[in-house]
Amino acid sequence: MLSPTARVILGMIRLGRRSGYEIKQLVDVSTRFFWAASYGQIYPELKRLEESGLVRSEDASTNGRARRAYELTERGDEALDEWLRSGAPLAFEMRDEGMLKLFFSDGVPAEHRLANVRAMRAHHGELAAHLRSIEPAAREKGGGPYAALRYGLAFHDFCAGYLSDLEPELEAELARR
Amino acid sequence: MLSPTARVILGMIRLGRRSGYEIKQLVDVSTRFFWAASYGQIYPELKRLEESGLVRSEDASTNGRARRAYELTERGDEALDEWLRSGAPLAFEMRDEGMLKLFFSDGVPAEHRLANVRAMRAHHGELAAHLRSIEPAAREKGGGPYAALRYGLAFHDFCAGYLSDLEPELEAELARR
DNA sequence: CTTTGCATGTAAACCGTTACATGATTTT
DNA sequence: AAAATCATGTAACGGTTTACATGCAAAG
Question: Which pTM was predicted?
Answer without folding.
Answer: 0.94
